[in-house]
């Protein structure tokens, strides 16, 4: 192989590496990022220490939907919670039963024990451009009921998509 050919091959490899790095940075900045679940408020869906990939782009073209697991950015920390109430809806919990605008809502994503540990709450109406969120482990979750309050649309930075660590837990989260 001539030195000229060898030099061209190194340049091509260098270009490919630079392009790959730029694409990875763009994807990480604008499309996907990772977050570590801290605490047990989303048990059993997400466990303490799991790493999830979240989609940053999805809410630029769509709005959060009931049941979505979202990443909430607050000044001191990020939170992972489930969307329960949408803007303008009335939320009430009576003896663990979730009522949305007065109609019972079946919570298939949590256990019966978690439902019974929810207690009573509301009624409360979700303001425009805000969301009502709860953790799946209702007994210990700090959420819209007891500390986080309503979540403004601008505070939602992504939707949890995939558990990537530990590797034995790989699965879609929604």
Automatic annotation (TrEMBL):
Localization per Swiss-Prot or TrEMBL: Cell membrane; Membrane
Keywords, comma-separated and alphabetical: Hydrolase, Membrane, Protease, Transmembrane, Transmembrane helix
Top EC class for this record: hydrolase
GO cellular component: plasma membrane
Superkingdom: Bacteria
Residue intervals of the Peptidase S26 domain: 10-164
GO molecular function, one term: signal peptidase activity
Topological relation to the membrane, as annotated: Single-pass type II membrane protein
The keyword Transmembrane helix is assigned to this record: yes
Residues at the catalytic site: 41, 81
Annotated TM spans: 16-37
UniProt-listed Pfam families: Peptidase_S26 (PF10502)
InterPro entries, A to Z: LexA/Signal_pep-like_sf, Pept_S26A_signal_pept_1, Pept_S26A_signal_pept_1_CS, Pept_S26A_signal_pept_1_Lys-AS, Pept_S26A_signal_pept_1_Ser-AS, Peptidase_S26
Keyword Cell division: no
BP term (GO), one: signal peptide processing
Known catalytic reactions: Cleavage of hydrophobic, N-terminal signal or leader sequences from secreted and periplasmic proteins
Main location: membrane
Protein EC: 3.4.21.89
Protein family according to the UniProt entry: Belongs to the peptidase S26 family.
Protein name (Swiss-Prot/TrEMBL): Signal peptidase I
Lineage: Bacteria, Bacillati, Bacillota, Bacilli, Bacillales
Gene that specifies this protein: lepB
